[in-house]
Specification:
alpha/beta, Rossmann fold, 8-stranded mixed beta sheet, 13 helices, about 40% helix
Length: about 325
C-alpha cells in the first residue's frame, strides 16, 4: 500500500533535514528577560560561526520562511532565529498581559543580550555575528553599540536609522511614482495621508496604506507588485501550523500596537562609534526602509571596519530576492 502523500510543509521539512554527523537542528524555549521565547538553531556543523538573526515586523519572525534562503547558509554557519517576546510561537507560551508592559526597545535589547549569553555557553564561543532585519536592526544596532563584548560583527539588512526620515523619504518616492504612472487611486489615497508621517505617532491604519503602495510599486520586493510568498509564507512551515499560526497573527497585532509608537521615534543617528565591524547589505530598490538615511549614517560611522554591499536587484527582502548573492556575501564577509 502506498503511503499517504506528504503535505507541502511535510515535504519542505523532510528536504530540510540535516543528516551530517555534527549537525544541529534544535528548537527549544529559552527564558529571556524572564519571558520564555522560542529559539531555533540549525547548521551542518556546530563548530561553524554563529549567525544570530533578529527579525523585523515588528512581530514577524523570519523562521517560518527561512527555508526559502537559509539551507545553503547552514553549510557555513550555524543559523539562530528566535521569536521575540510577544511574537510568533513565543506569543502563545507567555501571557500577553504579562509581556505587554515590558515590550520596550531596551527590554528587547536585553533579551537579545541574554540570548547571546546562552549561545556562548551552548556553543563554547565568545561572541556571535549579529544580523538585524528591518525592526530587528534597531535592537541589533543598539546591542552592538552597548555590548561589543558579545558581538563579533554586526550586519544590518533593511536598516532603520531614523524612522521618521525613512518614512518621509519613502512617501515622497511613492507620490512621485503615483504621479508618473497617472495612478489616480494611489494619488487619492496618498494625498489623504498628508502630511505623512506627520508629527504625531503613526497608527497602523495610515501605515498600512503607505505600505500597500510600497509593495505595489516594488519597494518591498523588487519587480513585484506583492510579496505574498513572504507575508503568507508561514503556511509552508511545519512549525507554524494550527495554534502556532494563530499565535503568529495575534503576536503580530500585539507587537504593532505596542512597538509602533516607540519605533516612530527611533533615531540611531547618534550611534556612530562602534568597537565591532559594521556591515550593511542594502537593497537598491528598498522603499520600506529607504537606504539614503543609512548611507548618510554609514559615512560618519567609526568602527574597525565598515562596508556597504549593494543588492542591485533587491528591495527589502534581499535574502529572498538574491539568495545566491546573499550566501556569497555572507561567506565573503564572515568566513
Amino acid at each position: 500500500m502506498n503511503p499517504d502523500p506528504l503535505s507541502t510543509p511535510e515535504i519542505i521539512h523532510s528536504l530540510q533535514r540535516l543528516t551530517t554527523p555534527d549537525a544541529i537542528d534544535l528548537t527549544t524555549i529559552v527564558p529571556l528577560g524572564g519571558v520564555p521565547q522560542v529559539v531555533s538553531v540549525r547548521g551542518r556543523n556546530r563548530v561553524n560561526p554563529v549567525l544570530l538573526f533578529l527579525h523585523g515586523g515588528p512581530g514577524t519572525p523570519l523562521a517560518p520562511t527561512g527555508w526559502m534562503w537559509q539551507r545553503p547558509i547552514e553549510e557555513f554557519f550555524t543559523v539562530v532565529h528566535y521569536d521575540q517576546r510577544g511574537a510568533g510561537r513565543s506569543y502563545r507560551i507567555a501571557e500577553p498581559d504579562v509581556v505587554r508592559p515590558a515590550m520596550t526597545i531596551n527590554q528587547y535589547v536585553q533579551d537579545a543580550a541574554e540570548l547571546v549569553e546562552w549561545l556562548k555557553v551552548e556553543f563554547s564561543i565568545d561572541r556571535v555575528i549579529l544580523v538585524g532585519h528591518s525592526w530587528g536592526t534597531v535592537i541589533a544596532t543598539t546591542l552592538a553599540h552597548q555590548r561589543p563584548n558579545l558581538v563579533e560583527a554586526y550586519l544590518g539588512i533593511g536598516q532603520v536609522i531614523d524612522f521618521r526620515a525613512g518614512e518621509t523619504s519613502s512617501y515622497s518616492w511613492l507620490c512621485n511614482q503615483a504621479a508618473s504612472r497617472d495612478d489616480d487611486q494611489a494619488i487619492r489615497e496618498l494625498d489623504a495621508l498628508a502630511p505623512y508621517p506627520g508629527e504625531q505617532p503613526l497608527n497602523w491604519d495610515k501605515m498600512s496604506i503607505h505600505r500597500k503602495w510600497v509593495e505595489r510599486y516594488g519597494g518591498f520586493a523588487a519587480g513585484r507588485s506583492d510579496c505574498d510568498y513572504y507575508t503568507q509564507g508561514e503556511v509552508t512551515s511545519l512549525d507554524y501550523q494550527g495554534e502556532n499560526r494563530r499565535s503568529t497573527t495575534e503576536g503580530n497585532q500585539l507587537s504593532l500596537e505596542v512597538i509602533l509608537p516607540q519605533l516612530f521615534n527611533a533615531d540611531l543617528t547618534n550611534l556612530t562609534s562602534f568597537d565591532v565591524p559594521i556591515i550593511q547589505f542594502l537593497g537598491r530598490h528598498d522603499q520600506l526602509t529607504p537606504t539614503e538615511p543609512v548611507t548618510r549614517w554609514m559615512a560618519g560611522v567609526n568602527a574597525p571596519r565598515t562596508e556597504i554591499e549593494w543588492f542591485e536587484d533587491s528591495a527589502h527582502m534581499l535574502m529572498n530576492e538574491e539568495p545566491g548573492h546573499f550566501l556569497t556575501a555572507l561567506v565573503h564577509q564572515f568566513k
